[in-house]
């Protein structure tokens, strides 16, 4: 820059201009709309079509949804209200939810005992918390282990000694295994399996009889056929989820195993169960299971359904876990072998943690499917929420009501299933070890 | 290896080796498992025989040849087999099988179409469209299928007009009117024109099949020319012309052998035309929408699994976006898509047994429903039903595996 040059120019800016905001079309909502809604003409047309579709759906449904009928005691009262207000009768009658939501939740569970399933739900959530999210004190895990027995007692009632004595069997198993494992691993496994079974077969009955005579503590018993509604779905769903995961993992290990017979039996079980619809299995449970049991045995339909649903989803979980097992690099198996770990040690410490991590989305999807499939029990006469809609429609007050109930039930299921899906995403992120 | 096995210290076999020696332990475990399973099966079978004996029942399939004696709503199955209530239980089962196959087939097609479209739209840059597809997917995946079936069926049976609403009343507007004078959606079913096959229509069908085959052959020829010489022949419009022109020509040459019979209002109901049962429609729509939501996610995951470098390489070669999609991305995505797609097809087929909710006469409703209740042969009916679904599943798996093999990466 020469001095002379400065003289020849008419104007030189010597201060920095204040920063200007970007033009309206290059920032803010306009920019966002141009990028995301109208980037080119074909997308613009798609946006317009989408807006039109949404408008049609919303304008069709909104007048139906917004209807001042929360307090109406019956469908005819709703209709009367609409005529009184001079409105179309094509509107929702939400009074049915107000009137019957307890039934949709609890079925025919005695009304004065509604607190018990409610407390059981909180026990379930508290018991699940340490399993689902880390960072709880160790004693809390003990509570999680005890929670199935607490929930059982709360829901079915009866003497508290049955669940306690049954739980004692598990304690015996653990003690026997721990006591013997140092001396002889095989003997310990054997004792850990056989002792509790013998205990349950021969000692539970007399022991509970003695104890409940001596100390008759208990809750009012509730029969299984009084369970219904969303409570029934949750009971079947949670029980089957908890039971099917270990069974599914065992089946997957069996299918991946080198042992010829174990392998073939696992394959046969998995393929037969998966090849046939759940409805057929449920009908088998309700129509045929008694044929296969010793004459004179009859056991609870709810329990039979839980067993069937468990076996069914175990087969699906086995396939998901098999995918996970196959995805673990071969070097990991060989590494475990070269460390001299036994089969179970290598599975437990090396292979399964990695395989299960890979299969989390699939496992959770199976659980979501299982929970949704609990609605099928309506076909064998159990009163799940959808079965109860028929019962509600059968009353004169609510004869002819459909969509309000379906929407309510749909929202309940959506909330539970959607949360499960979100949880699996959270777990995937938490367990992610690779840097991407 | 040989140096190690040259001189093994010969030991006599001890019983404890069955447990402690890994060479024999696997054998022990397997024999143990086998014995346990055999005992279990024996126990179940023994119970079954005792129970059946005490009921005076013998497993017996003779009931299949006895008269069924119940009516089935007219459907594709009754049309194919000519079923009447005088037919046997075996015929009723066949009707059910045809109906199951029909709804599964239609469902698979519609679900695939929906799923592919929604899966591509889900990946669109358009925020609104991709959100809408997300709502569709989450809405259908997180709510039981049974609820959707019941909901759609109740919409059909409660919200659609009755056939008599289509009647034209003097001086008043009728409550409902037919679309294009040919289609009517009523609470008793969906009415549409039915083809009437006149003389010579067989020739027409033959011409149609031949021209479709010719169109496919042309496509193969065009591809071969493209791959051999790089010369690109026009693909779409010649195929359309080859497929349609001979048929149209034959139609007029043969003197219009196929005509349509329109549904017409007679009294309080429609007559003529083709009536599609609402149960079938509701089941079909619900199954397709539900499975379509799962297929959407599968398609999305498949397309996302193709690395971005492939798209970039295709653009670098000067390919237009739709050719990139057809020739580069989709063939690679298909390999990821097909295995889960197969399992969705299987799920759809098995879920078609939910026909029970709407009273559609599928095989579970005929063989596993009315026949079972009438004859009391629960064991035989359930066994046949289970085997049938197993066979269906295996058949679908087999076809899809063939398809998968043809799509596999062909390495030189």
Automatic annotation (TrEMBL), chain A:
GO MF, one annotated term: transmembrane transporter activity
Keyword Membrane among record annotations: yes
InterPro entries in the cross-refs: AA_ABC_transptr_permease_3TM (IPR010065), ArtM/GltK/GlnP/TcyL/YhdX-like (IPR043429), MetI-like (IPR000515), MetI-like_sf (IPR035906)
PROSITE patterns: ABC_TM1
Chief place where the protein resides: membrane
Domain ABC transmembrane type-1 intervals: 230-424
One Pfam family per UniProt: BPD_transp_1
GO biological process: amino acid transport
Location(s) in or outside the cell: Cell inner membrane; Cell membrane
Keyword Transport: yes
Entry keywords, A to Z: Cell membrane, Membrane, Transmembrane, Transmembrane helix, Transport
Record's bilayer topology term: Multi-pass membrane protein
Transmembrane segments: 41-66, 113-132, 139-156, 162-181, 188-210, 230-253, 265-289, 301-321, 362-381, 401-421
One GO cellular component term: ATP-binding cassette (ABC) transporter complex
Family: Belongs to the binding-protein-dependent transport system permease family. HisMQ subfamily.
NCBIfam families, sorted: HEQRo_perm_3TM (TIGR01726)
Protein name per Swiss-Prot or TrEMBL: L-glutamine ABC transporter membrane protein /L-glutamate ABC transporter membrane protein /L-aspartate ABC transporter membrane protein /L-asparagine ABC transporter membrane protein
Organism annotation: Loktanella fryxellensis
UniProtKB/TrEMBL annotation, chain B:
GO biological process terms on file: amino acid transport
ABC transmembrane type-1 domain span: 97-400
Membrane topology: Multi-pass membrane protein
InterPro entries referenced in this protein's UniProt entry, alphabetically: AA_ABC_transptr_permease_3TM, ArtM/GltK/GlnP/TcyL/YhdX-like, MetI-like, MetI-like_sf
GO molecular function list: transmembrane transporter activity
Entry-linked Pfam families: BPD_transp_1
Gene3D superfamilies associated with the record: MetI-like
Taxonomic superkingdom: Bacteria
Keywords, in A-Z order: Amino-acid transport, Cell membrane, Membrane, Transmembrane, Transmembrane helix, Transport
Record carries keyword Metal-binding: no
Residues that span the membrane, as ranges: 24-45, 101-121, 133-156, 196-218, 239-259, 279-303, 382-403
PROSITE patterns the record matches: ABC_TM1 (PS50928)
GO cellular component: ATP-binding cassette (ABC) transporter complex
Location of the protein in the cell: Cell inner membrane; Cell membrane
Family: Belongs to the binding-protein-dependent transport system permease family. HisMQ subfamily.
Name of the featured protein: L-glutamine ABC transporter membrane protein /L-glutamate ABC transporter membrane protein /L-aspartate ABC transporter membrane protein /L-asparagine ABC transporter membrane protein
Organism annotation: Loktanella fryxellensis
UniProt lineage: Bacteria, Pseudomonadati, Pseudomonadota, Alphaproteobacteria, Rhodobacterales
């Amino acid at each position: 820059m020469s001095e002379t040059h400065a003289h020849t120019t008419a104007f030189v800016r010597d201060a920095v201009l204040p920063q200007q905001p970007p033009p309206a079309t290059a920032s803010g909502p306009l920019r966002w709309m141009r990028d995301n809604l109208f980037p080119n003409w074909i997308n613009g047309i798609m946006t317009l079509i989408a807006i039109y579709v949404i408008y049609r759906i919303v304008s069709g449904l909104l007048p139906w949804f917004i209807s001042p009928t929360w307090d109406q005691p019956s469908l005819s009262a709703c209709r009367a209200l609409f005529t009184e207000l001079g409105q179309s009768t094509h509107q929702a009658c939400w009074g049915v939810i107000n009137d019957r939501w307890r039934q949709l939740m609890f079925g025919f569970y005695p009304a004065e005992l509604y607190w018990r399933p409610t407390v059981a739900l909180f026990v379930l959530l508290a018991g699940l918390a340490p399993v689902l999210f880390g960072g709880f004190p160790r004693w809390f895990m003990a509570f999680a282990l005890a929670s199935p027995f607490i929930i059982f007692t709360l829901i079915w009632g009866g003497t508290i000694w049955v669940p306690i004595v049954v739980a004692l069997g598990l304690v015996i198993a653990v003690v026997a295994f721990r006591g013997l494992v140092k001396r002889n691993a095989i003997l310990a496994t054997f004792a850990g399996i056989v002792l509790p079974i013998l205990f349950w077969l021969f000692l539970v009955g007399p022991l509970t009889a003695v104890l409940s005579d001596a100390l008759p503590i208990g809750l009012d018993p509730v029969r299984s056929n009084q369970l219904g509604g969303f409570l029934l779905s949750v009971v079947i769903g949670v029980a089957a989820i908890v039971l099917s995961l270990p069974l599914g993992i065992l089946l997957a290990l069996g299918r991946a195993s080198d042992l010829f017979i174990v392998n073939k039996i696992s394959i046969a079980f998995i393929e037969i169960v998966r090849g046939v619809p759940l409805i057929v299995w449920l009908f088998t449970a309700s129509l045929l299971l008694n044929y296969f049991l010793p004459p004179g045995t009859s056991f609870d339909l709810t329990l039979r359904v839980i067993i069937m649903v468990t076996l069914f989803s175990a087969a699906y979980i086995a396939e998901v876990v098999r995918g996970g097992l196959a995805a673990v690099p071969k070097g990991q198996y060989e590494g475990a072998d070269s460390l001299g770990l036994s089969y179970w040690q290598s599975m437990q410490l090396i292979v399964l943690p990695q395989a299960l991590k890979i299969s989390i989305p699939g496992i959770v999807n199976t659980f979501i499917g299982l929970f949704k499939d609990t609605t099928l029990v309506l076909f064998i006469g159990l009163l799940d929420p959808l079965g109860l809609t028929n019962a509600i429609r059968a009353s004169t007050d609510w004869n002819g009501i459909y969509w309000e109930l379906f929407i309510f039930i749909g929202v309940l299921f959506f909330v539970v299933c959607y949360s499960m899906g979100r949880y699996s995403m959270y777990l995937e992120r938490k367990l992610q070890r690779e840097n991407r | 290896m040989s140096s190690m096995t040259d001189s093994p210290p010969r030991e006599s076999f001890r019983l404890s080796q069955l447990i402690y020696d890994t060479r024999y332990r696997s054998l022990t475990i397997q024999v143990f498992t086998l014995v346990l399973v055999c005992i279990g099966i024996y126990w179940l079978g023994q119970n079954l025989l005792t129970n059946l004996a005490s009921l005076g029942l013998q497993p017996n399939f003779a009931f299949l040849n006895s008269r069924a004696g119940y009516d089935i709503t007219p459907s594709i199955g009754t049309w194919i087999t000519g079923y009447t209530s005088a037919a046997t239980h075996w015929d009723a089962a066949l009707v059910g099988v045809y109906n199951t196959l029909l709804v599964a087939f239609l469902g698979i097609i519609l679900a695939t179409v929906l799923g592919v479209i929604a899966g591509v739209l889900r990946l669109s840059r358009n925020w609104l469209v991709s959100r809408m597809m997300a709502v569709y997917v989450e809405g259908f995946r997180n709510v039981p299928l049974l609820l959707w079936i019941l909901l759609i069926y109740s919409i059909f049976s409660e919200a659609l007009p009755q056939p008599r609403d289509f009647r034209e009343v003097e001086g008043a507007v009728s409550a409902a009117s037919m679309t294009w004078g040919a289609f009517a959606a009523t609470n008793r079913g969906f009415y549409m024109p039915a083809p009437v096959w006149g003389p010579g229509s067989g020739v027409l069908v033959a011409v149609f099949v031949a021209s479709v085959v010719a169109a496919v052959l042309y496509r193969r020829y065009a591809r071969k020319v493209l791959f051999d010489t790089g010369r690109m022949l026009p693909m779409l419009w010649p195929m359309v012309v080859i497929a349609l022109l001979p048929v149209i020509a034959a139609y007029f040459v043969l003197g219009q052998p196929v005509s349509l019979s329109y549904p017409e209002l007679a009294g309080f109901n429609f007559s003529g035309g083709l009536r599609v049962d609402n149960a079938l429609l509701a089941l079909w729509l619900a199954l397709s929408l539900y499975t379509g939501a799962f297929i959407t996610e599968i398609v999305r995951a498949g397309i996302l699994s193709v690395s971005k470098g492939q798209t970039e390489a295709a653009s670098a070669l000067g390919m237009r976006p739709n050719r990139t999609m057809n020739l580069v991305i989709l063939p690679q995505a298909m390999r990821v898509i097909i295995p889960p797609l197969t399992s969705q097809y299987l799920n759809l087929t098995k879920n078609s047994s939910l026909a029970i909710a709407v009273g559609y006469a599928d095989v579970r409703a005929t063989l596993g429903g009315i026949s079972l209740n009438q004859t009391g042969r629960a064991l035989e009916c359930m066994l046949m039903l289970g085997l049938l679904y197993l066979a269906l599943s295996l058949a679908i798996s087999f076809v899809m595996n063939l398809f998968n093999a043809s799509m596999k990466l062909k390495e030189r």
